Amino acid sequence: MTAAGGTHLWAGLSARTLMIRRCECCDLLLAPVAVTCSSCGSDHLSRVPSTGLGSMVTWKLADRTGVGADDDALPSMLAVVALDDGPWICSWIEGEIAVRPGRPVRVEFDHLGSDERYPVFHGCQHGTAVRVA
Ligand SMILES: [Zn+2]
């Protein structure tokens, strides 16, 4: 998903900022892909930066293609993350982390192509990403 002008829907100009939506009518913060406000129904939504911090709500192992050296699907963890800002987002979890409800995570961006980025989450403590090889 790419917004007009080539800017990716998810990422802010810094390429490290997850952008979410805010309703201009009632100020509710919404998921990045929202097109209307779930509270008042308005379609006047602006893009605002998220903290990128959240916690895991639920997760499931799923086959994921395009992450390895070949095209074989690899088992990866797909999770619903409740952002500290409020909205929930469904995304991949990178690295092996001890999963439990409420596990803190932080967004980072992986690259699909030369200018395409998508959000993934890593386990973290105190707002700092922790990569586990
Ligand atoms: Zn609204």
From TrEMBL:
It comes from the Bacteria. InterPro entries: NA-bd_OB-fold, Thioester_dehydratase-like. SUPFAM superfamilies: Nucleic acid-binding proteins. This is DUF35 domain-containing protein.
